[in-house]
Amino acid sequence: MKTQFDLEFTATPSVIRTARDAAAVIASEIPEDRVDDVRLLVSELVTNSIRHGGLASTDWVRVRLSMGQGKIRIEVHDSGKGFELPTVPVDPSESGWGMYFLAHVADRWGVDRAGETCVWFEIDL
Fold first, then answer.
1. pLDDT at 93
2. Distance (Å, rounded) from C-alpha 59 to C-alpha 12?
3. Which helix or strand (DSSP H or E) is residue 52 part of?
4. Rounded to whole angstroms, how far apart are CA atoms 43 and 95?
5. Which of 3, 26, 28, 72 has the lowest CB atom count within 10 Å?
């Protein structure tokens, strides 16, 4: 797989949009109907890191995007304590849809916890 970008941000809400917009760098390389899926899931995972990961504003969130072998892979790493993985929003009229979207849009996804939290997903091209 070829890494398209590997970016690290401070854990502030303003980076959610920056990370989502950065994911558009691959727009010309993937099917048009998957660009919004990638941007949505990047935004949701970075949001989860910042809102639920127990991070301070001086902590970091890292977004790594790579492509190859017929798929795109996104990893969102943070130095936080992690969070529980709900599959259905607690209050559907509010927030909490991130993991639901992840489970229904990504072809594969998972969570790795080895000193840091890494939530990743893959979308087949």
1. 58
2. 9
3. helix 32-52
4. 13
5. 28
Asked whether 61 and 76 are in contact (CB, 8 A), the reply is: yes
Tens digit of each residue's pLDDT (9 = 90 or more) over 14-31: 999 999 999 888 888 888
Q: Amino acid identity of 62?
A: R
CATH fold, domain 2-124, is: Heat Shock Protein 90 (3.30.565)
Quick one: tokens of 51?
């809102």
Whether pLDDT at 34 is above 60: yes
Q: What are phi and psi of 36, to 5 degrees?
A: -65, -30
Whole-angstrom Cα distance, residue 75 to residue 73?
7
Segment 41-62, tens digit of pLDDT: 999 999 989 888 888 889 999 9
Look up tokens 């259905």; give the residue: 88
Q: Do 30 and 91 touch, CB atoms closer than 8 A? A: no
**Cα dihedral 44, 88, 82, 114 sign:** negative
Other C-beta atoms closer than 10 Å to the C-beta of 37 total 18
Torsion of CA 49, 52, 58, 60, to 10 degrees: -20
